[in-house]
Structures are given as structure tokens and as C-alpha cells.
Amino acid sequence: MVFNSLTFIVFFACVLGLHSLPLPWTVKKVNLLIASYLFYSAWNPPFVILLWVSTVVDWYAAQGLVKARRASARHAWMLLSVIANLGMLGYFKYGQFLLDNFSALMSSIGVAYHPAHYDIVLPVGISFYTFATMSYTLDVYLRRAAPAKNLLDYALFVTFFPHLVAGPIMRPTELVPQFARPRRASAQQLRFGLALMTLGLFNKVVLADSFLSDAAEQVYDGVRVPGTLDAWAATLAFSGQIFCDFAGYSTTAIGAALCLGFAMPDNFRFPYAAVGFSDFWRRWHITLSSWLRDYLYIPLGGNRHGPHRTYAALMTTMLLGGLWHGANWTFVAWGGLHGIYLSVERLLRGRFAGYRPGPWAFVALGILTYTLVNVTWVFFRAKTFARAWTVLKGMAGQNGITRPILPTFTLLSVAAIVGGILVTHWFMRSRTLESVVARTPPLAVGVVWALMAFAIVIAQGDGSAFIYFQF
Amino acid sequence: MHSSTSSSDALSDQYARATASDRPGVAQPVPQRPVPALPWRRMLLGALVLFVLLLGAWEAYWRAYGVVPGIRNTFGLWAIQRRRIDAGEGDATVLLGSSRSYFDLQLPQWRTLAGRAPIQLSYEGTSPMTAVEDLAADPKFTGRLIIGVAPELFFSGHGFALGVAKYAHKESPAQRVGQWLSMRLIEPYFAFFDADYALRTVLARQSWPQRPGRHWFTDVRKLAMYEADRNAYLWSKVDTDPAYRSLARGIWAEGFADYPGDPTPQEMLKTEKEQIERAAKAVAQLRAHGVKVLFVRLPSAGPYLEYEERFHPRTRAWDGLLAATGTPGLYFSDYPELRGFYLPEWSHMTQAEAQRFTIAFYGILQRDFWGPRPPTTGEKAQPN
Asked: What residue ranges define each of the domains in chain B, with the CATH number in brackets?
């Protein structure tokens, strides 16, 4: 089920009620586990089996790792986990993509190969929970973490519903210890958790779905050729939509967990105020970027083996990071562009090591970063390269005379919301939400809270899925 | 991918905390989630009171405008009716079409006459062809099918709800529960809970200056009230409020003109032929599992009727459809009993007129097409 649905409100009220009953801690954990399986099976019940497979394989792999005496045995247990998880991911997410590309490759060398179309349904959130479970085995393998003491705690770590389908991607060391002792939210945590959920849902339901998605859809999913204004408005709208959608999900998830007494990590830190791309990736989808860094970039050599290996590791990581988002070459192009940006930035930082930008240059570099990030969003949003080029040409003013696509109201709402997001991110770039809230008069916080809740209700969202569910 | 250095932005407040991006290559600790030091109890209560006041005012505003609570027409509502075919009612009469077969045929009157109401699967603003094909592919459906033909939709294949059949087959348990809850906890009590009064819709339809270079169509406004069994009827405001009726007519009239970029007559003719071929194929499939099909052309009036005749003349489009499908058809103007009904905005009848119309329509159906006896379960229908 999605957070922005009546079903979730009823489900969450039941879970909160159960969790507040004076029951033994183990019973409460079992309740949470069952609730999490219900949460997941509400999409497609048979796919719970995949969750079980992933859970059981990594549980036994970690147990095997701990008991193994020889390095080769440890290696084998680790590989079992990686192959099982990536195999599952590969089959469900990339099976058709690989077949299509193999077929295209055969055609290019004159061999007619037309495999049947499998119509494989992608299990929701598979990319997220396979990464979470893999981090468990990999942390045990890398001796960063001890295995969980019991299967219940481990299964709950994998399945805990707030992070299950779209993150934040939790590490075992972040969540498993929280299951060791009884936890129940304090009254303050419960109220702040509810406020965070309101903020998250406001981002998703009001800003992303109601006001921004339409502009991106009309330009990216239509057939008409956009002019400069429409192309830019749609791309800026998508930059706002994807932030509000995904950061909204993360905030709601963090709030839901806090209502139950659990802490989840930050996943976004006002990314559109980033200056440079390494800064951007410290602020955007933090739990994925740090996962890729820890389990891919560093094992590939990181920056320890000279510049060539560093750039190769960087590009490999970003290309695979792009592919993680979806089985389409446009996502690979998105990742590749970010890899190039990061490489160029690294090169420039080496070349101009002593350079410290003044205030205006700092803002200018921030604007440049945001502009270049928007260019990457074109490939992320467009379903085909042809459409991406059409939009890019529009952004560059190369589409000639075109008929307008977006009405004035849409343009104004995109300008107001995306402008608001940018101002907010720059104001908040070195602050935390909590510090700003703490310094705001309680009356103002209460009024804003009520207005956000009111806007969520009257926006009448249609319960559309979060963008990142498809990844 | 960021390099393995810590964040350059020092967070100086008491709530500052590092993230995973500041801790490369190590086990991540249990996260910190501090709560700002504020009187949260008072703030929550205050926010709740203000929220209730705002929502009450919003509800009162729409009620003063004439809106009353009603069931929402959603894909989930359609799916409930579609599932009846899988749940033992495969021999039922099914209504498919666009808004006219939805608003003009009243299920309570039909039930009184036939002892059993048809399954209403029409969808406003949408060609029925996708749903026809869905039923054609379902061997469990063996009953009778009435397909409403609203020329501009049917012969173009367009519509905003073309995905409804696919949704019904893929509807998740969570979506089903959400539909069930919404129909019981929200929709019967809140007038504002209607797509026509959603925040963005309300703001977007204000009189914003428009960009030059094309015609900007006005979105269709709320026209109907819906019930849980998908019985629908024209909203009384369309009839009783002259300004609203005029607005509704004006919106239709916008579509009657020609605009740059519209399909050419040749393109429209090509599309029309494609839709007729689609229908012929689907009807053949339906017949193969014993379904009796009847096409119906329900009334339109005034400039709307003229517009439909101009772009999809009866002698070409309607007659072509019947000939290609080998299916009987009921055209409203052929029957004195079906003429002269009042259509406030030229396209749909008022509820009272629709009730009268349904009785007359059912009489003709029994007299001229399907005979007096309703089909029984398992009965093989005669070929058309």
C-alpha cells in the first residue's frame, strides 16, 4: 500500500494501536513483522515469497560466514548472498531488458533472434530490499558488523514497513540494534513523527502530484515538440516533482518509524543547494549513494590506486547506479552524465586545489550545478532517447517555432513551487529541519502544520504511486 | 559518487548530525532523530482545531454552491461492477458506452421492469472500445451487451479512462480496500470530495491570462451524480442553474469549432474506419461465446447533434458500423417514443427525463430486439 492512501491511514492507526498495548517486546516485534508483510502483500501477495527468499538466504549466508574457518568459505557464503540477490533483481528487473538487447545485438550481426516477450511484473521495492539485505551479508563479510542475534530481529530489519519499498536503504547496524530493547515512542516523538508525516505527504500529494507532475507529463509523454519555455518548465517541474516525491516518501517513512519509536537516517539534505556534484551526492538519496560508495566504489579501488582507477571506479559506480534505477539505457545515460560531472569536478579540484569561491561565485557554481543536474533529469524522465533529444533541443532553443503546450497557470505554479524549493534549499543548506523548527514560534509551526494537512485533504490525491517504487 | 571526505558544510546547531555520506567504509551507527524542543501537545491540538475549522469552511463553501455528497466515479468503482461478471453474473446484460449510456439509462427503472438491473460499465468521456475488447476476451461473459455510440468518442477511440479495464484486472488488494473504505467513510459525507473541487482543479480554472498561439480548451465541469452500483444521472444544477447550464453548453461549443492542428477530414475518416474494424473484430469474438450485441445511439440535441452529424454523419459512420459488425442498432430518432426528451446541455437528459426514457427504451428493446423473456443462466443467445 502507498503512504498517501486511506488504506495506509487505517493500517497505520491499527499498527500504532497494537504497538502501544502492554504486550511483551517479542510479541510487539512479531506484530510489526506481520504488519510489514501485510503492508507488502497489499500490492501483490505472492511477491512476499521473494522477501522470504531474500531474508532466509542472507540469514543463512551470514551464519555461514561467521562459522566459516577458511577465507574461501567466507568468500563463497558472501557470493551466495550476492548472486541470490542480484539474480532475483536481474530476473525480475533486467530479464526483458537483457533479452531485448541480446536480440538487438544479434540483429546487428545479421542473426534474426526474436525471443518471446515475458511480461515480467516487477515486484515493488525489490531494488531497495535486496540492497538492504545484501548490506547485511556484506557488512558481516567485511567484519563491520556482527550477525543479528535472532531471525526475528533480522527479518524485521529487512521487512520493517516504513523503509521496505523505497528506503531509506537501511544498514543492519542502523536498525537491528534498535530491536534489541523495547521501544515505544515518547509523546513528543509521536507528535513530531506525525508532523514529519504531514510534511512528507504535503510534498508528495500537493506539490509533486497535484502541481508539478502535469507539466512534466504533458511535455515528456506527449508527441508535440516543445519550445524553450515549455521544455524548461517541464524539466524544472520534474526536478521539483522527483524531489518532492522521493524526499516526501523518505520524510513520511522517517515520521512513521518515529511514531513507533524507531530512528531512521536522513536520505536528503536540501540537494538543490549543492555546489558541485560530490556535494550533490552527499545530499541526494544519501542512503543509496553511500551504499554504492561502500559496497561498489571502494571495493573497486576507490581513490587508492591512482587517478585512472579512480575515474574508472567512479564511472562504473555511476553507470551501475543509473542502471539500478531502471532497465533502460536512458537511466544509464543519466548515471553516465553524473559520472562525467563527478570526474570533471575531481579533475578541476585537483587542478585548482587552492581555489576558494567568493559569495557570488559560490552561488553561480550552485546555479551551474542545478542547471547541469536538470540536464541529467531529461534522460531520467524521458522514456526514449528520441524524446530526450527533442526536449534537450527545446531547452537549447533549437526546436524553431512551436505551439505552446503548457497553460499559464501551469507555468506559474511550476515557477512558484520550484522557485520556493530552491530558496528553501539555499536557506537550509547548512541547517537541519529540527533546528529551524525549534527556532520558529510554536504558533507558526502549528498553523503551517494545519495548512499542510488541509492542503493534503483538499488536493484529493488519487493515491498515485511514488516514482521510486518502480525502481 | 562522492569521494571519501567528510561534508564541507559544518552544521553548527544542536540538532546537527552526520549522515552516511560522512562515514565512508564503516558500519553505520543507529541514527539520531532528535525532536525539536517545542510544546508539541499544544501545537498538535491547535493544528487539529485549525484543520477542522478550515475543512468545515471548505465543505460549507461547496455545499453553498449546491454540491451534495455522492459516490465518486473511479476506476475502483468500475472494477467492482466488472468483477460481477467473474463472480457468477456472466449471463447479465452489460451497458457499455460513454456518458449518454451512463447518465440516460437508469438502473432502478430497468430493475423494476426486468427484475434485474444491468451491469453498468460505461465511462464518461471515453470510447467504450477498450472495454468491449476486454469483455470480448473474457469467455465468462455470455450475456447481452448494449454498446452506446457517442460518435465523437466512439469513432475516434479517444477517452481519459481507456485504462480502466487494465486497472480492474491489476487492482491490488490495497486499492480494493481503499475503494471500500472511501465509499463508506468519506464519499457519503463530504461534498468537497469530488475531482471537480480538487485544489489544483479549482485554481487552474480561474481566469488566468492565456498564452497566445493556440486555443486553450476549458475543462469539462461536474455533470453527474453517481451511486454505489454505478447508476448515474445528470446533476440537477445543470438543469436548474442557468449560468451553470450555459457554462456546460459553452464548454461543448468550444469543441464544435475547427482549430489549427486538428485532424484533417481524411485523418478522421481513417480513424473512423479503424474503430469500425476494431468493433467488428470484437463483436465477432463476443458472438463466438454467445453474446448478443446491440449498438445504441442515444439522443443529443441542438448544436451538439449538428456537430456530430457534420463530422460523423449517420449514413457513413453509424450505418457503416452496423454493416461491418452485422449487428442490429437502435437509433433514437427512428423511434417516436425516444424523441423529444429535454437535454439541458444538448447531450444528457435530466434525471426525471432519463427515468422516463429508460422505460421507453426498455420497451423498444424487448419489443424489437430481445423479446419479452429475460435470458437465463447458461442460455445460449441467438446469433444477431
From this structure: 91-162+221-370 (3.40.50.1110)
